[in-house]
Write the structure tokens for this entry.
Amino acid sequence: MLTHRNRQKLTDTTCFGHSIGSRLALYWLCMALAALSAALFLLSVTGVLSRTARQFGETTTLQQKNTAALFSAQMDALTARGIELSENVSEELESFLARRNLPFDALNDDPELIAELETAMIPAMKTAMEGSTCSGVYFCLDATANTSLPDAENSRMGVYLRYSSLRSVPPSGTMTYFRGTVRYG
């Protein structure tokens, strides 16, 4: 039996005071706002609405070029200092051997002469270190204190001079001196 009250429930299109039409309009409004938000987000991310991504790319490219140029300049300076050190060591070696009227091969099998030469090289190496931002310098010569040892052809005399503390820029402080046999190969 259908009463007036039951009929009204079946035919009523309101739910909590809102009609189906108004709920449908609210649903479409939310969908349109979501679609607009998604479109704006995509345009922003791709850089269409802003130039941030392009400006960032240009800035990083410029930074990379500047860093590469600075690195190249530092490598050029280190190469020039290395060539200068090589020339100074060569001059010192030639002078050392000329004062004693000795050929280069006389250094082989003579530890005292090698030690004297190494000591004579230290001022030139120290000057090279103090005039640059490097933390150490070294040189090797094709001579050894004992050519009769096995594998002596791979053994060289050498000196390595470096700062003992590298906490400052440019490096400074007490210098440490290492000398002895250098192996290669």
The first strand starts at residue 14 and ends at 15. The chain has a mean pLDDT of 80. The CA atoms of residues 24 and 73 lie 69 Å apart. Helices lie at 4-11, 20-46, 52-100, 111-130.
